[in-house]
Write a structure and sequence with these properties.
Keywords: Amino-acid transport, ATP-binding, Nucleotide-binding, Transport. InterPro entries: AAA+_ATPase, ABC_transporter-like_ATP-bd, ABC_transporter-like_CS, BCAA_Transport_ATP-bd_LivF, P-loop_NTPase. One of its GO terms (molecular function) is ATP binding. The chain contains 9 helices and 10 strands. The chain is an alpha/beta fold. α3 runs parallel beside α6 and α7 runs parallel beside α8. The chain is globular and about 45 Å long. The structure holds adenosine-5'-triphosphate. The site of adenosine-5'-triphosphate has 12 residues, from β2 and α1. Adenosine-5'-triphosphate binds next to β2 and α1.
């Protein structure tokens, strides 16, 4: 059986009395898996629960890179080799692009070699903004920097919350292909994504969420861009 690097069992999460995730069960091996669903179905709540961020309050089991992480603080989870691209990006206004990358660069568990210069090869326009501060860059550049900041940690597992938001279509393609390549290098990539093209390009398979539950999982050979599936779970056609 495939070794699961992200292994989630019976995950529940709530904000006060409101339950946002109900008994989620899924796994991600050395592959790229997309989580898709309409606005408000619980995708960001899931990413936050995996990363130990509160709110929400979460219960169940979350194993990342073989370790139970539920209850651990976010910095401990990150140090296990878990990269995270949060929605909202959470950059520092007083740090430059270069500094964001330098402060996060480290050797990771899989021997990949993401450095600041490789990030700038992926995102040449970000390379031209190296000295700009976190509050001086555009929405697209913020997304690029958040992705770059996660990549230079050389993670064994990478969780991305709508990483392509705000990016030009050509850059979306570059990001999607890089995520696919990363998964081929042995990284478990969990891609929360509303951009169907990016998800289809990057991911090997997908889970669809609705009202805090996983309601559909693509099976072998099933296309993620199947019109009926997308219509039913996302309300879109491609
Ligand atoms: N801090 C919070 N306090 C209370 N309820 C929240 C909070 N954050 C999210 N929720 C609720 O939890 C549910 C799931 O929200 P979540 O942001 O996880 O969805 P999402 O699928 O990521 O949506 P989007 O794509 O719009 O970001 C929604 O009903 C939302 O209103």
């Amino acid at each position: 059986m495939t070794e699961m690097i992200i292994d989630v069992e019976n995950l529940k999460a709530h904000y006060g009395l409101g339950q946002a995730l109900q008994n989620l069960n899924f796994g991600v091996g050395k592959e790229c898996v997309a989580i898709m669903g309409r606005n408000g179905v619980g995708k960001t709540t899931l990413a936050r629960a995996l990363m130990g961020l509160a709110p929400p309050q979460a219960s169940g089991s979350v194993k990342l890179l073989g370790q139970q992480v539920l209850g651990l603080p976010p910095h401990r989870i990150a140090h296990l080799g878990v990269g995270y691209v949060p929605q909202g990006r959470r950059l520092f206004p007083s740090l430059s692009v270069d500094e964001h990358l330098q402060l996060n660069a480290r050797k990771g568990p899989t021997g990949q070699q993401w450095s600041a210069s490789r990030v700038f090869e992926l995102f040449p326009s970000l390379g031209q903004r190296r000295r700009a501060y976190g509050d001086q860059i555009s929405g697209g550049e913020r997304s690029m920097l958040a992705i770059g900041r996660a990549l230079v940690t050389n993670p064994g597992c990478l969780i991305l919350d709508e990483p392509t938001e705000g990016l030009a279509p050509a850059v979306v393609e570059d990001v999607a292909l890089s995520l696919k390549e990363l998964s081929r290098e042995g990284v478990a990539v969990l891609l929360i994504e509303q951009n169907v093209k990016a998800a289809v390009m990057a991911a090997d398979r997908a889970y669809f969420m609705s009202e805090g539950k996983i309601v559909h999982e693509t099976v072998d050979g099933e296309s993620m861009s199947d019109e009926a599936t997308l219509g039913r779970y996302l309300g879109v056609s491609v």
